[in-house]
Amino acid sequence: MCRLLAGYAWSPEGARLLGRLASLVASAAEYDPYLDRIHDDARHCHGYGFILLSRKGEEGWFAVYERFDAYGGPSDDCSENLEGLRRAASRVGRLLEDAGEAFLIIHARRASRGSPRGTANAHPFAVKAVMRDGVMEFYLAHNGSLEKSSLAASLGVRAEGYTDSHLLALSIAREAELTGEDLSGLLAKHYEHVKTAYNIAVLTLKDSAGRLEPALYLAAGSRDDLGEEVKRYYQHFIFEDSGAAGMASSTVYHLALREGVAGRLGTSFSPAGGGVYRIAPQARGVERLRNL
Question: Where is the Glutamine amidotransferase type-2 domain (predicted)?
Fold first, then answer.
């Protein structure tokens, strides 16, 4: 149970849109009306994280990667995490003010019962695969829940030491390295582990002869047998604008409508169907690659 925003901006106006949407993730974490209908606590306050890749013009990419969870500390961890996320979203917004191009994943976590806590378990998870044509880094964030036992068994590790999302990231990286299969195929293949929902953002950074080649992959889907209120909570939306595109959780979409981000800025939102998508610099838009 998490809130998620992922997007790519190819113009200064698009970068500022990502900054505005990032602030809505922080608002959604503080109170989520969709979560309030299915849970006794409407906050996503079990840690946060983001990966931001930005640049001006043809300059090199500037990366900021941050994760935090105050769990185990002396103060109230929920309050500290929400305040930390608010500051992080504000910082992301300031960095995007000066960007001409940017990739962003920002995530607010509500941990499943019994799932590991702490900064090491905050999203997005960073993993690496050595491919035949270069090194690939993956930054993966997830909203939903997966069958941990099957993922752990495939990796030969003990399930209780990991979150389901971390196991997913490790499994995808390992299979990419062993088989060379493209990420869209691996995301579709791992849908077999879904327990509730499979809303995923993966920023890939490929180092090819010293040149960084980023791309953003998205997946959205959920089980058909979920209750209607649960489906509304897990529903994600694809957004597209003249300068940016990406995917956002239902609550972020709800807040974007309420605050006039959609419409006034010409940003369109549409429900993400069961599928795998890609946003890359050469495409400048959301490309549907596979069905789930």
Answer: 2-292
Q: What is the CATH number of domain 2-291?
A: 3.60.20.10
Query: What tokens were used for 143?
Result: 């909203």
Please give the pLDDT value at position 173.
97
Alpha carbon distance 226, 26 (integer Å):
26
Would you give the end-to-end CA distance of the chain in angstroms?
20
pLDDT digits (tens, 9 = 90+) for 183-196: 999 999 999 999 99
Kindly state the tokens that stand for 82. Answer: 């929400």
Amino acid at 131: M
Cα separation of 242 and 184, whole Å?
25
Contact 236, 215 (CB under 8 A): no
